[in-house]
User: What shape does this take?
Amino acid sequence: MVVKVKEPQPNECRMLRPGQLLFTYLHLAPDPEQAKLLLASGATAIAYETVTSPKGGLPLLAPMSEVAGRMSIQAGAHHLEKAQGGNGMLLGGVPGVEPAHVLILGGGVVGTNAARMAVGLGARVTLLDRSLERLNQLDELFQGRVVCVYSTQDAVERFALEADLVIGAVLIPGASAPKLITRHHIARMKPGAVVVDVAIDQGGCFETSKPTTHQEPTYVVNDVVHYCVANMPGGVARTATMALTNATLPFTLALADRGLQALRDDAHLCNGLNVHEGHVTYEAVAQALNLPYLSPEQALTPFMQSA
Assistant: This one.
């Protein structure tokens, strides 16, 4: 994918201009148009989703991932109902009737919170991840109530075809999500199964995914119900806003007080820098969009020298 950056024209980019800071969720890798306009604006854009923590986590993505992970099970359980197009399975079953089988792809914050909810509702849960260390942590956390399996193509296919509900919880920070579930898998899944693609903001991890809204959250492909709502936490805006504000406030105050100097003072905040004065400054975004990459250090050098 090649993105051509044009010079801003009159009446374009009026909301953003050089010298301004934009601090929000960006998700640029699957969104070349947004990237093009940000580059043309000349503004500085800092992405919540790539700010890091000293422990290696993503502190501004975590609150929304927690919300989305928990919502994914809530939404999936609802759309398994027959009236919603699902196969009519109650997630936790009842005595004498087996529970639904939930497959979770990814053991990060989204996947862990999805597993918590699914286990709490009594579902049979399988979780796939490619980190043995993470699988060991989750196995200990859930004490055998979640089957933790190393993710391979064969494992994804086998468990997807058995599942009533599949949660796509895969994240590669700043980059497009890998397509783990193919059209071929979807065509062979149970009729009335439900897939919830939490990774849709990063392009989705199901080949058949396309963004939907809270007003029209689902569509059907090969008798499989797809729930691909972008910005899932928007459905529980009160909880999501409070959770996000708690996490973002210290960074927001630092930027308000010190501007670009805050990036120099805090390497973890600087990891959030995605666009600066017409340059892409996050490598995974540059690779996804086939654009030149300029490191944050290089991009900020003129500011550093003038400071």
Q: What stands out?
A: Residues 1-5 have pLDDT under 50 and may be disordered. The radius of gyration is 21 Å. The first strand starts at residue 21 and ends at 24.
